[in-house]
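re: that complex we talked abt at group meeting.

here r the seqs, copy pasted straight from the sheet so there may be weird spacing, ignore it
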Amino acid sequence: VTGALMAAEMAEQPDVLARLLARAPADAQRVARVLPSPLAGTVFLARGSSDNAAVFGRYLAELSAGRPAGLAAPSLCTRYHADVDWRGYLLIALSQSGATPEVVSTCASARSAGAAVIGITNEPDSPLAAVVDLLLTTDAGPERAVPATKTVTGQFALLATVAGALGARAGRGRPPAIGDAAAGAALAALPGAVATALADPGPARELARRWRDIDRLVVAGRGLGYAAALETALKVAETTGILATGMSTADLHHGPIAAVYGGARVLLIDGTGPADADLAGLRELLTSRGGQTATLPVHPGLAEAAQVITAVVRGQQLAFELASLRGTDPDAPAHLTKVTATT
Amino acid sequence: VTGALMAAEMAEQPDVLARLLARAPADAQRVARVLPSPLAGTVFLARGSSDNAAVFGRYLAELSAGRPAGLAAPSLCTRYHADVDWRGYLLIALSQSGATPEVVSTCASARSAGAAVIGITNEPDSPLAAVVDLLLTTDAGPERAVPATKTVTGQFALLATVAGALGARAGRGRPPAIGDAAAGAALAALPGAVATALADPGPARELARRWRDIDRLVVAGRGLGYAAALETALKVAETTGILATGMSTADLHHGPIAAVYGGARVLLIDGTGPADADLAGLRELLTSRGGQTATLPVHPGLAEAAQVITAVVRGQQLAFELASLRGTDPDAPAHLTKVTATT
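got the structure back, here u go
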């Protein structure tokens, strides 16, 4: 059956998340042992859907650690052979396969130049394991559909754990985005919320029917929700061939919004947190000018990080339903492979 | 005449660049006086086309300074009120107008938390001036067309100057990307190369004819050329309403390439530097699978930074020609304004 793998792997997410949350206090202790002191900054290194998790981590890390965070540009290592002093930095590398060559080689280089390196992967025996100070596994079981689902939400959950450890080290506790309560507690509702979303495919199905024939899509979010926007756009692109692009609402206003006036549809990732007013403002502006927007249901009452992870799942549903309606097989999109060996 | 402002402002670029290169040694001295020591890292802060210049600066700064560089997430300051310790950091804020509220407020906040702040703007009397340690002006004269052109290439040139100062401070000289010669010298050919490109609108015109009716476009680059890809995509989007997205070739391979197999055209920014093989590989892959790619002429023999700035000008030409053929006015795209006041 077309999409059977992706559907099965999506359905495993509540269990994967519950396992990771149960492990969170122990993971946080392991993270604490490798953190640089003092911390100069945090850098995330990844590609594809792992890079969307990295965006989520980047916001959480800066909020929690109180030092600037950012994203690595792997070509600086692999193409420019940049000589960078990484002392004082925490480098967090994400790769589902643990085998993306440019991720592994950049880790090795940064570590030998002084970085403390945490790897996050679903494959504990992968090459990534050899070039990190600490490996955290998403422990999601084999993932065989090309579009990553359970490994991605697993990465998001682990990044909340890492952020908790960064906040504790900085003596500032957990930011509201991941809940102020004791480690793990504020995200405790996450597996249940994801199960609720998975049991409710109707809204994504209905939106997919409405948008069945589109060939371009903007997914807009802001703050932590920006990561869900990027991930939803990637899932839609890879499963359907639609040109889908995730964008910050602020970036959208600085020019690209012309493409929306030109007819591109916009999915708004809202209801997640402090940037909700930006999403509401964008909706109002676009609606007044004939732009076509939509949203998917949110799950109020959760910590923001949990809202965003649930929004990622809603995005998976949209990608799945669009692919099904358009007659493409989300499990194995034409020309794509599960492991992408960029250098 | 439709597009008259944009055309006139594009034509001023050789003069603007020549002025900035003449000023480069003095600017580099002023930069040297505000650099933190030791340097923890460099962060760039911008939106829109200034943010594309920031990507260019981000690569150059890490290469030159030998410490990690990255891009700010303004919502962390303006929406999350993150409490961040910026000591040891150089923050470089770019805004043509100097009036983007979130850029100004993030500068003020980071500076009071210990950052050294350099502002790059075309408006020396703007609010940005009040919240920086050093203001560098693109000195490009009034820019009235909505799509920024001469102020953007001016920002790129100033960022090469800043990178030169970072390299000198680090005792490592100038990276090959901006030329190993004495300050300014390696970019000396830039104004002439831009003038040559401007005198040769044929290739962009021909490509615009071929792609006149597209509604989606990927612009792919890598390394420094990634910044030109982002900027070309933005120019095309804002002048035409095409959904155009700039992407690293490596990111493209991790899923979004499905949209190219789905029919999106790809403009390759190549011939600029160490990542050329990645562009060649992408072209070969896509060609073998029926993907439609194109390139615009490059200017061999220049330092990479100059190649990339010239590629930005080629992208402006493509946007201009596409808009002209499609009957939109690039000077004043519907619903867009020159200053975008995101908070």
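couple things i noticed - Residues 150 and 315 of chain B are 13 Å apart (CA to CA). The longest strand of chain B covers residues 89-94.
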